[in-house]
Amino acid sequence: MSKEASQRVLRLLPAVDEVLRDDRIADLLTGYPRGIVIEAIRAALAGERRLILGGEPANRDLNEQYFLDLIITKTIAVVEQSLSVKLRPVINATGVVLHTNLGRALLSERARHAVNNIASSYSNLELELETGRRGSRYAPLEYLLTSLTGAEAALVVNNNAAAVLLVLSSLAQGREVIVSRGQLVEIGGSFRIPEVMVQSGARLVEVGATNKTYPDDYKKLINENTALLLHVHTSNYQIIGFTRETTISELVDVGRTFSLPVMSDLGSGSLIDLSRFGLPREPSVQEIVAAGADVVTFSGDKLLGGPQAGIVVGRRHYIERMKKHPLLRAIRVDKMTVAALEATLREYLDEQRAVQELPVLQMLTAPISLLEEKAADLAVQLRRLSGAKAEVAVEQGVSAVGGGAFPAAELTTVVVTIAPGRISAGDLQAALRQGDPAVMSRVQGGRLILDVRTVCDQEIPELAAAVGKVI
Ligand SMILES: *Cc1c(COP(=O)(O)O)cnc(C)c1O
């Protein structure tokens, strides 16, 4: 298009005021703020101007009405999209049970009910009903946590990263903390032990080699400035081969000899031994406490299967120092977390019930026969909806635990595979991700893989319909 032609087309664009006067925009203004609508109109006009100056649209019989309609359609789409609810449910067909990007643990029915209850009315969050005096929001959780873990005292904060920061700040500020070189962990999202150490004002002293650290290595570095011996669970990686880790019990012996506290950051602490269900043997929180660790920290929303929280259990005099630390107020848990965590912990009063009621444990311990049934059900619905447009099969596969727990564990699972005829598996995956409901899946060898381990029964028809829509 020539320059003059472009200028002629530009003159066909409506003014902002003219767009605002249109009935369709007046309708839009009843539901959305005027400032946002005007901004969207301006953006739509600017976009169109750029296209025209760039030579588009060529050879079309254009008029003012065409551009008015175009700008209005674009404005409505942009406003509705930008103000649609952004945080929404996703169907997790990846098989990764503790998927940090997908919100980690699903809450049990009782925990969901408790959140709803406490969110909808006033509560005794910080009130002792017996005496009428001010109470502690941590008290109900502390009672449950000490009963369940055997620790003397407990405290709960916003997440485990905050728990680690609080412990280090309270017990080691301005002093030295000894950590093995094999345990300088980075958890996704910029949580790194050396950096948290800097934040807390404690000084990191590295000990041993990446693959081997002996109790004597710690002993050699202890001096009058040492405040704490820290053991970090290498949650999301494994060092295999020629290795030697100083165990918690050995570290506790060193700590006792030198009168130093020992801290264990468990990350994904579990209250039950999951090796009964075929997962690798990992010491439970109770075992770490029994081994003599003075302070243990772990997450609420990893293997525990509760809300996002950081749990600290340990000796009373250390926990008391944390309760008095000014940082605690900045990282305290809100009432919905307290409600969800109390309900989650109560499930553990009966181990059998915990496995039955907590979605994380249900998914991790699901028997193959149950997964086969679910996959068969999904496959039948998928075949009905996709007809000849895709090849649907049921196969064995492998799921991951996720959330930095059991990094090397491979859980045998049952997957439904889809070989789409018309589009590529990658395109199908992207379309499902952007659909409503959004679906997260895997692609392998040109096929879409749906792992039913992390798909709830009620989601099966929705999942089948979502695939049917885009295939
Ligand atoms: C996950 C993890 C953390 C961080 O816990 P969040 O609850 O995600 O803050 C800290 N340390 C270890 C060893 C972990 O695995």
Task: Spell out the blueprint of helices and strands.
Elements: H1 3-10, H2 16-21, H3 23-31, H4 34-53, H5 64-82, E1 90-92, H6 109-119, H7 139-149, E2 153-157, H8 160-172, E3 176-180, E4 186-187, E5 191-192, H9 193-200, E6 203-207, H10 215-221, E7 226-232, H11 248-258, E8 262-267, H12 285-290, E9 295-299, E10 310-314, H13 316-324, H14 327-330, H15 335-347, H16 351-357, H17 359-365, H18 368-386, E11 390-399, E12 411-420, H19 425-433, E13 438-440, E14 442-444, E15 447-451, H20 459-470
Parallel strand pairs: 1-13, 3-6, 3-7, 7-8, 8-9
Antiparallel strand pairs: 2-10, 4-5, 9-10, 11-12, 12-15, 14-15
The structure holds pyridoxal-5'-phosphate (PLP).
Q: Note the beta-strand portion.
A: 15-25%
Bound molecules: pyridoxal-5'-phosphate
- What does the main sheet amount to? 7 strands, mixed
Total DSSP E strands = 15
| Average pLDDT level | 93
* CATH level-two architecture of the largest domain: 3-Layer(aba) Sandwich
Number of helices: 20
Whole-number tally of structural domains? 3
Would you kindly provide a written description of the structure presented here, covering whatever features stand out?
- The protein folds into three domains: 3-82, no CATH class; 90-98 and 364-470, Aspartate Aminotransferase, domain 1 (Alpha-Beta Complex); 107-357, Aspartate Aminotransferase, domain 2, CATH 3.40.640.
- The chain contains 20 helices and 15 strands.
- It has helices at 3-10, 16-21, 23-31, 34-53, 64-82, 109-119, 139-149, 160-172, 193-200, 215-221, 248-258, 285-290, 316-324, 327-330, 335-347, 351-357, 359-365, 368-386, 425-433, 459-470; strands spanning 90-92, 153-157, 176-180, 186-187, 191-192, 203-207, 226-232, 262-267, 295-299, 310-314, 390-399, 411-420, 438-440, 442-444, 447-451.
- The mean pLDDT is 93.
- A hairpin with a 2-residue loop joins β14 and β15 (447-451).
- The strands form four sheets. A seven-stranded mixed sheet has the order 2-10-9-8-7-3-6, sandwiched between helices. A four-stranded antiparallel sheet has the order 11-12-15-14. The protein has a two-stranded parallel ribbon with strand order 1-13.
- It has 471 residues and is of the alpha/beta class.
- The longest helix is centred in the first third of the chain and has 20 residues, at 34-53.
- It starts with a helix and ends with a helix.
